[in-house]
Specification:
Largest sheet: 7 strands, mixed
Helix content: 25-40%
Number of strands: 22
Oligomer: single chain
Structural class: alpha/beta
Strand order of the largest sheet: 16-17-15-14-20-21-22
Strand content: 15-25%
Distance between the termini: 52 Å
Length: about 525
């Protein structure tokens, strides 16, 4: 095992990362490339699928070259991806008919409100475990079929996009499906990604006919659904392609489920929170799909080959790390590393609260028309107060989820495993521990999404023998314990709900909806 490895393609919201891991779970290679964020109108967010594919080839090639790893040394490749982001492409040519609609995209809010008015929300939640929201793939693929400009594809197919879909000429999928297709030629997704489309019945473990009809998505468009770690594999790379080797693609997980797997949260009650563009708090609930009464999602965590599906409860927070990026965009900071110093330079926000509802609010509020607000400012408010309020908003949103999670699952979280770019900020980790009054454990390998998909692929090809072997790989970098008294945390959190209330139902049609 000393000279063979498992690789992961981690296709995220802002860029694509390629990592290679050895048997101990240590990083052998790491390459990253950003892609363009496309904002055609307020509230619309798109990516170019072909740019993502070209970047994928670039980071794979560069990562292997820089590490001196030959493609023939790869036992398997795993894929993890920004979930819900949706692509429709031509089955024959492999060309997208439109840009990918990103999970953050809000253009289908009106369609969601139409479904709500038709009293179909509970039906959708019962089948999918999801809140009816523009966040998920169903309304995105429906929009593409109804609105993709046929002139753009006239060079190779002049027919109307929906007509071509009905004729079986188009395929749809989330980013994992797109990359599996480009790597192997096969149209496949895994159960974790399928569960995020709002088209898949998480209890029957199949595409739901009623939902496909509701969103007018032909069954011929949807991919085959396979386990997250698949010993039969999803296929292999083309030996005549860019890698020059036939490498099995054997694992796939949506990024948050991949982080759950990479954090070795294999048992019911294990929980993790990933701080990226948004934050995603997942708790493994075992083989039971726990219904939420508190605005959380019931989702599929993962499935091993020939094993039962493992479910999870999820709290999806749309904007956390992106709020720090916003501070940089508006020149309140020059670099994200500044936030800790600026926040520490003052004792409190002096009553300033920031609600980063830039793309609406996810769990537990689910308000697609909420918008970002800063409240409580006075003439004495300085940038330090706004920076600290932004970091506090991350901790408050996480407490919203933690309280909902404990109420739904009936389990108190005594230690939360964290990962993602923002957890490098020690101030934020300590603040988070204080606000939720829970120990925080940060692992040595913080790219746990990539690690999780590598684990899934490696298990499928027996690079690792069992999940028990993976547990021994998980090592703590640092733990944070609450230093604040519960009363102090409650006082800080006390007016958060009032601040959130002022952000709700703000956007009107034509203003970022």
């Amino acid at each position: 095992m000393t000279d063979t490895y498992v690789a992961s393609i981690d296709q995220g919201t802002t860029g694509t990362r390629f990592m290679v891991f050895d048997h101990s779970g240590s990083v052998v290679a790491n390459a990253y490339e950003q892609h363009e964020q496309i904002y055609p109108e307020p509230g619309w967010v798109e990516h170019d699928p072909m740019e993502i594919w070209e970047n994928t080839k670039e980071v794979v090639t560069r990562g292997l070259d820089e590490a001196g790893v030959d493609p023939g040394q790869l036992e398997a490749i795993g894929i993890t991806n920004q979930r819900e982001t949706t692509i429709v492409w031509d089955k024959e040519t492999g060309k997208p008919v439109y840009n990918a609609l990103v999970w953050q995209d809000r253009r289908t809010t009106d369609r969601v409100e139409e479904i709500q008015e038709e009293d179909k929300v509970e039906m959708i939640r019962g089948k999918t475990g999801l809140e009816c929201d523009a966040y998920f793939s169903a309304t995105k693929v429906e929009w593409i079929l109804d609105n993709a400009d046929p002139i753009k594809v006239q060079r190779f197919r002049p027919e109307d996009v929906r007509d071509r879909a009905e004729a079986g000429e188009l395929l749809m999928g989330t980013i994992d499906t797109w990359l599996i297709y480009k790597l192997t030629g096969n149209h496949i997704t895994d159960v974790s990604n399928a569960s995020r489309t709002m088209l898949y019945n998480i209890h029957d473990l199949d595409w739901d006919h009623e939902l496909l009809d509701e969103f007018d998505v032909p069954r011929t468009m949807v991919p085959e659904v396979r386990p997250s770690s698949d010993e039969e594999t999803y296929g292999s790379t083309d030996p005549d392609g860019f890698l020059g080797e036939e490498v099995p693609v054997a694992g796939a997980l949506g990024d948050q489920q991949a982080a759950l797997f990479g954090q070795t949260c294999f048992d019911a009650g294990d929980a993790k929170n990933t701080y990226g563009t948004g934050s995603f708090y997942l708790m493994n609930t075992g083989e039971e799909a726990v219904d939420s009464d508190n605005g959380l999602l019931t989702t599929i965590g993962f499935q091993l080959s020939d094993g039962p599906v493992q479910y999870a409860l999820e709290g999806s927070i749309f904007i956390t790390g992106a709020a720090i990026e916003w501070l940089e965009d508006v020149d309140l900071i020059d670099d994200p590393s500044e936030t800790a110093r600026l926040a520490r330079s003052i004792d409190s926000t002096e009553g300033v609260y920031m609600v980063p509802a830039f793309t609406g609010l996810g769990a537990p509020h689910w308000d697609g028309r909420a918008r970002g607000t800063i409240v409580g400012m006075t003439r004495g408010t300085r940038r330090e107060h706004i920076v600290r309020a932004t970091l506090e908003s991350i901790a408050y949103q996480t407490r919203d989820i933690a309280e909902a999670m404990e109420a739904d699952a009936g389990v108190e979280t005594t230690r939360l495993r964290v990962d993602g770019g923002a957890v490098k900020n020690n101030f934020l980790c300590q603040l988070q521990s204080d606000i939720i009054q829970t120990d925080i454990a940060r692992p040595q390998v913080d790219e746990t999404t990539a690690l999780g998909s590598a684990y899934a692929a490696g298990l499928a090809v027996d690079y690792w023998e069992s999940i028990n072997e993976l547990r021994s790989n998980w090592k703590i970098d640092r733990e944070f314990e609450p230093e604040m008294e519960p009363e102090g945390a409650d006082e800080m959190y006390g007016r958060w709900d009032a601040a959130v209330e002022r952000s709700l139902d703000w956007a009107v049609e034509g203003e970022g909806d």
